[in-house]
Amino acid sequence: MSNLKDLTKEVHQNAERQEFVEVLMSGKIHDDTYAIFLANQHPMYNVLESLATAKGLLDGLPGICRAHAIHEDFKELWKHDEAAPLLDVTKRYTDHISNISDDKTKLFAHIYTRHMGDLSGGRMISGFIPGEGRLYQFDDPDTLKAKIRERLTDEMADEAKVCFAFAAQTFKEMLSYVRTKS
């Protein structure tokens, strides 16, 4: 059994302690703010899931892909004619994923970090965000988590830490777009 959770605990906690997470969990996040967050998550998940699927990394993990759900959540909330702003970190992340696309271990570290967070924390987050929250809706989350855990190795720790750092940076960059409901 992998110790990946313990090996990444510090950077995971750092990401969770970002100020934007407090806004996300406040129940008062404005539709536009959450939509901007989703608009930036979509390209990140899309490139990750596309490359992971092409490498066979998502075989046996039915319902894991989130890019489509993220896009649907975004469309539900974004009511403006102009495109939502893209964060600097979004381009850096998608470039990073493209650069590691030949390394299945590194790619799966990102699947673990992002998707396990959606599977675990998503149940709680979904109660605070606007809209339907399709991103956090899974048919069988417990089985999916177990199947992900079966594939984890300690050698994924360094890349999982990179993913958590990207998440923390996303939260930091989102602060300039924060609006809350009264």
> Shape from CA axes?
globular
What is the tally of beta strands? 0
Helical element count?
10
CATH hierarchy: architecture of the domain at 28-80 and 104-177: Up-down Bundle
Give the biggest beta sheet.
none
Query: Helix fraction?
Result: 55-70%
The level-1 CATH class of the domain at 28-80 and 104-177: Mainly Alpha
Structure class: mainly alpha
The H/E string reads HHHHHHHHHH
Cα distance, first to last residue?
A: 46 Å
User: What gyration radius follows from the Cα positions, in whole Å?
Assistant: 16 Å
CATH superfamily of the domain at 28-80 and 104-177: Heme oxygenase-like
The proportion of strand residues reads: under 5%
CATH fold type of the domain at 28-80 and 104-177: Heme Oxygenase, Chain A
Mean pLDDT: 96
Uncertain spans = none
How would you explain this protein's 3D organization?
This protein has helices at residues 4-7, 9-16, 19-24, 31-54, 67-77, 88-99, 104-120, 122-125, 141-150, 157-174. It is built from ten helices and no strands. It has a domain at 28-80 and 104-177: Heme Oxygenase, Chain A. The mean pLDDT is 96. It is globular and about 45 Å long.
